[in-house]
Amino acid sequence: MRNTLVLCAIISGFFVSSYFLFEMPLITVIYPLSLSAIAVAITAAAGYASRARRHRAIERREPPAPKDIIEEDYQKIIHDMEEDAKASREQAAEAYRDMIEYYTVWAHQIKTPIAAMKLQLQAEDSGTARRLGGDLNRIEGYVNMAMAYLRLDSEDTDYLIREYRVDDIIRPVIRKFSREFILKKLTLNYDPPEMKVITDEKWLSFVLEQVISNAVKYTGEGGTIRIYGKSDNSLCIEDTGIGINPEDLPRIFEKGYTGFNGRQDKSASGIGLFLCKRILENLGHSIFADSEAGKGTRMTLEFRQQAIQVE
User: Fold this and answer.
1) Rounded Cα gap, residues 241 and 293, in angstroms
2) How far apart are CA 264 and CA 261, in angstroms?
3) Could you tell me where the DSSP H helices lie in the chain?
4) pLDDT at 236 exceeding the cut of 90
5) What angle is formed at CA 14 by the lines to CA 13 and CA 15, rounded to 5 degrees?
6) 243 Rama class: left (phi>0) / alpha (psi -120 to 50) / beta
7) Are 284 and 304 in contact (CB under 8 A)?
8) Residue 92 has pLDDT above 80, yes or no
9) Is 136 exposed, middle or buried (0-12, 13-18, 19+ CB in 10 A)?
10) Pair 189, 224: CB distance under 8 Å
11) Which of 14, 29, 141, 174 has a CA positioned 20 to 30 A from the CA of residue 189?
12) How many Å from the N-terminal Cα to the C-terminal Cα in the chain?
């Protein structure tokens, strides 16, 4: 468009120069100038329409037919780059699937001796057995956390969404930590929530395990953990533990963030609550935290209540 305007200005300059140099009649200058202006306007409109059509085709990811050999070369380069990118994505996806398969096998293999040790410890009720049981729970939790992290953004999900009673999901999780409650002399106040939730049982159980594990971990001996329904679609897990510092509270769901408590506890990874938030978001739920340093923490899980059609 700029070149066309420059060309029009040059041609107009020729006509004007001819008019003054040769003292030509004014009509001999105005008439061809008018015709030229009309021809330029028509050409410009046609060019604009052509560019607009090509622009819309490109927006639809439909490359227009090349106008010359240069455009043809550019389109070939772009096509080759797209093919290379597609091949790279396929290779990365294949490598990711191989990694998931490997760690899935690894998780099943390592869970076998964990389950065997748990069975052996069930026959013994002592302080040592309770401590070992708690350690095994943490090991199993770390294995589940690793698998959850790997599968978080996987295209292949194993969600089974249906309606569940929250009480049916949370009771097995509480039983899993029973020995740690006894070992630390923690008081559990469990008010069974009378609510149903549309969710995935396995993934929600993982979230509950992470939240209750944190409550047990950061609540001192003789403390209290309370689990109750706050409303028709909310579940609260409240403890009287060390709490969370105000400056850390807004960031506890960030990936890798451990905060003051995590730095004091060298084993903290800053992944557990991040996974909880992401998993709940994938399920259509949400999680919030209220805390006061030195007095305890309350985690609130809000569940979606949309009706679903059972297939």
Assistant:
1) 9
2) 5
3) 2-22, 26-59, 69-122, 127-151, 166-176, 178-183, 201-217, 259-264, 272-282
4) yes
5) 90
6) left
7) yes
8) yes
9) middle
10) yes
11) 141
12) 60
pLDDT at 290: 92
pLDDT digits (tens, 9 = 90+) for 100-133: 788 778 887 887 888 888 778 777 777 787 788 8
What whole-number distance in Å separates Cα of residue 51 and Cα of residue 281?
Answer: 43
Cβ neighbours, 10 Å, residue 19: 16
Is 311 a residue whose pLDDT tops 60? Answer: no
DSSP state of 283: T
**Phi-psi label, residue 287: left if phi above 0, alpha if psi -120 to 50, beta otherwise:** beta
Is there a contact between 183 and 219 (Cβ–Cβ < 8 Å)?
A: no
Helix 127-151 to helix 272-282 angle (10° resolution) is 50
Highest mean pLDDT of the ranges 50-59, 64-73, 178-187 = 178-187
Count, residues in the chain: 311
Residues 6+ positions from 189 with CB-CB distance below 8 Å: 224, 225, 226, 227, 228
Predicted pLDDT at 167: 93
For the record, the structure tokens of 272 come out as: 């557990």
Average pLDDT over residues 269-292: 89
Residues 6 or more apart in contact with residue 287 via CB below 8 angstroms: 207, 211, 253, 276, 277, 280, 299, 300, 301, 302
The dihedral of CA 174, 177, 179, 183: what is its sign?
negative
pLDDT band at residue 188 under the 50/70/90 scheme: very high
Cα separations in angstroms, 156 against 63, 106, 151, 152, 306 = 32, 18, 8, 10, 24
